[in-house]
Amino acid sequence: MTAVASRPVPAPAKAPGSTWHRLTPLLVTVLAAAGAYAVHRLFIGTALGQEVDTAALRGGDFHHPRVSEVLTRTLDATRLAVLALVCLMAAAFGVLRRRLDLAIASGFLVIAANLITQQLKAGLERPLLDGFPAPNSWPSGHATAAASAAFVLVLVFPRALRGTVGLVGAGYVAIVSVATVWAEWHRPSDVIAALLIVLACGSLAVFAVRLRRTGPAPAIRLPNRLVMVVLGVAAALAAATAAFGMGAVALSERPLPDLVSGRFAFLTGTAGIIAAVAVTVIVWVRLTAGEPTTAPTPQGDPK
């Protein structure tokens, strides 16, 4: 008799390395904090940086009835009550899905990001290098509030929905952020720094969650590819537009006065904000892809 050859059994997919899985959020925290510091040094600590930043702020002084209505309503909706509601939702999701650690991480994200933002805004001084006297507004409290709310919802929602929630949240954060510049409350650098601060605080919270976890790292389920492609394309196009626009605005402020209009400077700042929103949301959605929103089942298959 001849023995029947058995079919080869495919090897199970390897889980990501536990050490790298735990340290990735800490690396993101360091990079985001360094990015916020670099933004401050460039746009607050140099004369040309201040001039480009302020040109975008002053260029937002134009009115369109329908656009003004949308931006005003969005700013009015970004209040402390919204943050409190988000924290309650995060706590409820954590209890219902047996992930109290994610609920605590969400609370830390919101409180730490908004506290750091307010302390920096109150404690830092803005040297007068651009001839436009104004108190320090770096970083933006409204952008911090909007981004922290969006990030918390991404963290506590089921992993299958995180990409979609991230896309919707990115749209909301972008509208709030652009509205603060349009209303002449903040410069683009204020907004970009706020986004980086929220990302740093959120990543630190995820690091703490992973640090206390025992056993092998859970399998990473990648977010919706279409959503990530949309955000990636938006980030690339907006970043390229912002880079070109900043060069033109810088030339207009120094060797070639009146090369571009104030509205062009505002649109350049808007492109920079959109790029920053898209990049931070991509990083956050990708980072949270390794965090299941329910406790592992007895078989060890996290949902």
Automatic annotation (TrEMBL):
It comes from Actinoplanes utahensis. Signal peptide: none annotated. The chain crosses the membrane at residues 23-44, 77-95, 102-120, 140-158, 165-185, 191-209, 229-252, 264-285. Keywords: Membrane, Transmembrane, Transmembrane helix. InterPro entries: PAP2/HPO, PAP2/HPO_sf. Residues 103-206 form the Phosphatidic acid phosphatase type 2/haloperoxidase domain. Pfam families: PAP2 (PF01569). Gene3D superfamilies: Phosphatidic acid phosphatase type 2/haloperoxidase. This is Phosphoesterase. It comes from the Bacteria.
